[in-house]
Amino acid sequence: FCTPCLQECLKPKKPVCGVCRSTLSPGSRALDLEKQIETTETTCSGCNKKMYLSKMRSHAASCSKYQNYIMEGVKAVTKEPLHNTRNFPNRFTFPCPYCSEKNFDQEGLVEHCKTLHSMDAKQVVCPICAAMPWGDPNYRSANFMEHLQRRHRFSYDTFVVCDYDADEDDMMAQVLMRSLRDK
After folding, report:
1. Under a CB-based contact definition with an 8 Å cutoff, are residues 13 and 26 in contact?
2. What is the spatial distance between Cα 10 and Cα 14, in angstroms, rounded to a whole number?
3. Could you report the per-residue pLDDT of 107-151, keeping only the tens digit for each?
4. Which of 34, 124, 130, 154 could cysteine-pair with 137, CB 3.0–4.6 Å?
5. Own/partner pairs for 7-13, CB < 8 Å, 24+ apart?
6. Is 107 helix (H, G, I), strand (E, B) or coil?
7. Element (H, E) at 31
């Protein structure tokens, strides 16, 4: 996770899991695991120095041989240049169209707008719809709050397997085929 997305999930008012978005409950420290980390020895893969696991992170940050070891591994598994992620639309986090606060998941955006912007009548573009292949990034909803309540009560990908590149007819055909197989 990138830092802004992780921070959004860990906000004090509602800390949630970064994957399933379920509410996190306060936990207790795993003292047995901490003890095991402090007493287990390992060897640095770069300089072969022995140390306890608890010291490995700080050692790795300053060990130039370990850094070289990691870079060699990265080069070995990188066969082609990484894809430019700017070419793929972000369909997981959205900015508020009223105040431009960023990194809301769909549920968080709905909650934020209900709490802070329920009386705002300004016509805005729905950032969730605009991110979808079928969405119009220029369409301004006459009643954005009603649109959120009706259209975005749940996230599509929570309940169905979405193929955003398929058109509506293809998705309907896939659904019909699955329903016939499930009988």
Report:
1. no
2. 7
3. 889 889 999 999 988 999 999 888 887 788 899 988 999 998 888
4. 130
5. 7/103, 8/93, 8/103, 8/104, 8/105, 8/108
6. helix
7. helix 31-39
